[in-house]
Amino acid sequence: MIAIVKPDELITRREEISVSSKEDGAVKEILSRIRREGDKAVRELTAQFDGVELSTFEVTDVEIEAAVSKVSSEVRDALTLAAKRIRKYHERQKQNSWMDTEEDGTVLGQLIRPLQKVGLYVPGGRAAYPSTVLMTAIPAAVAGVEEVIMVTPPDSNGEVPSPTLVAAREAGVTRIYKIGGAQAIAALAYGTESISSVDKIVGPGNAYVAHAKRLVYGQVDIDSIAGPSEIVVIADEHANARYIAADLISQAEHDPMASAVLLTPSTFLAEKVTNELLEQCEGLPRRKIATTSLINHGALCITQDLNEAMELANRLAPEHLELMVEDPWRWVGAIKNAGALFLGQWSPEAVGDYLAGPNHVLPTNGTARFFSPLSVEDFSKKTSLISYSQKALLRDGPAVIAIAEAEGLTGHAASIRARIEKEE
């Protein structure tokens, strides 16, 4: 079911995310249509791709209240608890504006302000992802964003899954629109008659959504280009094979393109995990997806020792990294690249997806080398503040003039000289 590969093969097996000319052309045409035709194009594309004709896109308060009544109290309570945990974690990320005053009267500082309007893309249609609503909307609310606009595909009845709407209410989403795909990204970026343009778009989606985000970047900001989900588990001979297999499957069931990898110096453990994977996949509702992922993109790698496993993990820079070793805290310093790090057998990746508090919108496909999880900082912007005193300008002016003239920018130099020569 799952390939046994050598350490060097792991890096070369990772597929580069690419966009076909067909996908590129289709997304560009959708973006162009939305810019030209607005709501008309959104309506026609929703009928084409989602199989439903909508007269209006916005979810009403009546629909939200109806959704609340359809969701069990157990699920509502779980979403409330998750929201509380996520909010508490992200409150710790808030930064404050600051200013420093020098002895000569110069004031330097940084102003931190929230974005005014952001768009959240939440996958939907055949599935519900209330956790993604919480993970994207709550950091925006904590940052102080004024308008949080959510888009999500409707089902064939023109409805949004009830848990998704309950989560949106819990997280304080301002407006919800029943649109998805590249057309939803275009509507958020350019605006239509009924949908306002935003400053930034965040959230995961399929290949068309990801490419649309890539193409509208610059018109608006985006979080990142998300690839298929991935997990790497580092385990020693003491690890529980049943737990490891369950965690590998938890990612494999996301998508046939998802990647699940075990790094271990124990051949015996690898064999036990292989058997567990076969057993646990039987009867799994998403068995076909999980097995396709494990066969095509999964891997078991026998390393010389845990040091080599840690080095390989850093090269892979995975979205999720579990340390299923006897003393996981000992190895934290060895990990340089990972979207989220899970320590010990009682910290499965799934608890991070839903309830622990840290964000589950994470860098994928090796981008944890330079990207970070979605955070409050993603929903704010910084402005530098400079207030020079006369004394400071007289002191620093000659140095500014020297640099400006070295660059050939005599106008810059003149703007300084006009002030300091007059005072001299």
From TrEMBL:
InterPro entries listed in its UniProt record: Ald_DH/histidinol_DH (IPR016161), Histidinol_DH_CS (IPR001692), Histidinol_DH_monofunct (IPR022695), Hstdl_DH (IPR012131)
Domain of life, per lineage: Bacteria
Entry annotation: catalytic residues: 319 (proton acceptor), 320 (proton acceptor)
GO molecular function annotations of the record: histidinol dehydrogenase activity; NAD binding; zinc ion binding
GO BP, one annotated term: L-histidine biosynthetic process
Pathway involvement of the protein, from the record: Amino-acid biosynthesis; L-histidine biosynthesis; L-histidine from 5-phospho-alpha-D-ribose 1-diphosphate: step 9/9
Catalytic activity: L-histidinol + 2 NAD(+) + H2O = L-histidine + 2 NADH + 3 H(+)
Cofactor: Zn(2+)
Keyword entries, A-Z: Amino-acid biosynthesis, Histidine biosynthesis, Metal-binding, NAD, Oxidoreductase, Zinc
Cofactor note (record): Binds 1 zinc ion per subunit.
Pfam families named among the record's database cross-references: Histidinol_dh
EC number: 1.1.1.23
One CC-aspect GO term: cytosol
Binding-site list for NAD(+): 121, 183, 206
Binding site for substrate: 229, 251, 254, 320, 353, 407, 412
PANTHER family: HISTIDINE BIOSYNTHESIS TRIFUNCTIONAL PROTEIN, HISTIDINOL DEHYDROGENASE HDH
Family statement drawn from the similarity comment of this UniProt entry: Belongs to the histidinol dehydrogenase family.
Protein name: Histidinol dehydrogenase
Protein species of origin: Marininema halotolerans
Gene expressing this chain: hisD
